[in-house]
Design a protein that fits this description.
Elements lengths: L3 H4 L2 H19 L4 E10 L1 H13 L4 E6 L5 H16 L3 E7 L8 H10 L2 E5 L18 E4 L3 E5 L20 E6 L2 H13 L23 E8 L7 H12 L3 E5 L7 H12 L3 E7 L6 H8 L2 H7 L2 E5 L8 E4 L3 E5 L5 H6 L2 E7 L1 H15 L2 E4 L1 H4 L4 H11 L6
Parallel strand pairs: 2-3, 3-4, 9-10, 10-11
Antiparallel strand pairs: 1-7, 1-8, 2-5, 5-6, 6-7, 8-14, 9-12, 11-15, 12-13, 13-14
Helix pairs in contact: 2-7, 3-4, 4-5, 7-8, 8-10, 9-14
Length: about 400
């Protein structure tokens, strides 16, 4: 497949970036920051060493926020790294979602607490108000010394280890960020932390330094709030799809578009935008959620949207690229949990070079994927259709 950068004349690239940037700044109301650097980390064999090295190098602070922290070898390695920094006098804070991380191995908690790691739970199920119970934090944020940030799709568990070679190694993408956008990641951590602890900052520890500008990437930070109704993440998805002119490439773990998002995807394809969607295949970890998403395939395929299922392992990445010049990266999926129910954090990177890397990885993933063909999909068994209809009834909750 030809790269979008080859389809757009070079003279138009800067104009496309400017149009997309101003459109998103105007609709979301969050200014983008200049001078960031972004490093793409693909799969656990790149992601975990980078995160662990970041923690090991901490001299003042470590802030970790995650939805999933289960255990195993990876859980033990992170616990030991966090304990080491806490014992060295580094303020080390860990914020866990009380639902997503409820199965964490208890000895790891004891080990961290006894070493001085500050552990808090986001909305404990036993104490939370009923109307908040279904609103979780799905953010994945690590900030070290207020200067280095990580975000993306990965959880702290052995499922993410390896290089997506088989069904025991999940496929995911994470990012190491330096520059002013790190402030946005720290704000996402604090936004959830203050719900669990009234210490917003410590004058003797938190410096709030002027961030360096080590790169050339422009980044807009977008937070989604865990509340019913519309969110900035919803606005972001709809805006990107409406602004796209050439191509949209989406990789997402959980794809359950509501009717509006479904129509937005179809409309983009019908006006000539190449819309390509890569989703989990036979190793999807939540078959019910997959069925709910599959109920929308027929309409999308008829509109010209192309859909693939990743074959080797569970696909957990969350990446969208627009027109070869903009990347939407972070924790949000294209489902109701991310757009209406959960706390999320996404970064919009205006950077054709970054998009070139991500699009190349998309192409590599397509080589290990199976395309859903409209004709064959129309002949799927009746029981499958019945399960899709049943799952679709719950699409606003998954």
């Amino acid at each position: 497949m030809a790269a979008v950068q080859e389809q757009l004349p070079p003279s138009e690239t800067a104009a496309r970036v400017a149009t997309l940037r101003r459109g998103l700044e105007g609709m979301i109301g969050v200014p983008a920051t200049e001078g960031n650097s972004v490093e793409v980390l693909r799969n656990g064999n790149e992601i975990f060493p980078a995160m662990l090295d970041g923690i090991a190098g901490a001299r003042r602070t470590v802030d970790l926020l995650t939805f999933v922290y289960w255990g195993g070898e990876i859980g033990a390695r992170f616990a030991e790294a966090l304990c080491d920094r806490a014992r060295a006098g580094v303020r080390t804070r860990v914020l866990l979602d009380a639902w997503g991380a409820h199965s964490i191995e208890k000895p790891l908690l004891t080990q961290m607490e006894e070493s001085g790691v500050l552990i808090r739970w986001f909305r404990p199920l036993a104490r939370i108000q009923v109307h908040k119970a279904n609103h979780r934090t799905h953010r994945k944020v690590l900030v070290v010394d207020e200067e280095i940030g990580f975000t993306g799709g990965v959880g702290i568990a052995d499922e993410w280890n390896g290089d997506a070679r088989n069904d025991g190694e999940w496929r995911d993408t994470h990012f190491r960020i330096r520059g002013p956008a790190v402030d946005g990641l720290r704000a996402a951590f604090l936004d959830n932390w203050v719900e669990t602890d009234d210490v917003l900052f410590e004058a003797a520890v938190d410096r709030f330094p002027d961030q360096p500008q080590p790169g050339s990437t422009v980044i807009q930070t977008v937070r989604g709030a865990s509340e019913s109704g519309w969110s900035d993440i919803s606005t972001l998805f709809h805006a990107l799809l409406q602004l796209a002119q050439v191509r949209v490439r989406i990789t997402t773990a959980y794809f359950v578009p509501d009717s509006m998002l479904n129509d937005r995807l179809s409309s983009a394809a019908e006006r000539g935008v190449q819309v390509e969607i890569l989703l989990p295949g036979p190793h999807a970890d939540k078959r019910f959620v997959q069925l709910a998403g599959e109920s929308s395939y027929a309409h999308l395929l008829e509109s010209g949207v192309r859909i693939w299922h990743f074959q080797p392992s569970m696909l957990h990445a969350k990446v969208m690229t627009i027109d070869g010049v903009v990347a939407n990266i972070g924790s949000a999926n294209l489902n109701a949990r991310s757009t209406r129910l959960d706390e999320e954090i996404n970064l919009v990177a205006f950077d054709p070079e970054l998009v070139r890397v991500l699009d190349a990885q998309f192409d590599e993933d397509l080589e290990r994927s199976e395309e859903i063909v409209a004709g064959r999909w129309g002949h799927r068994p009746l029981p499958q259709r019945a399960f899709e209809r049943a799952a679709k009834l719950f699409r606003h909750e998954v």
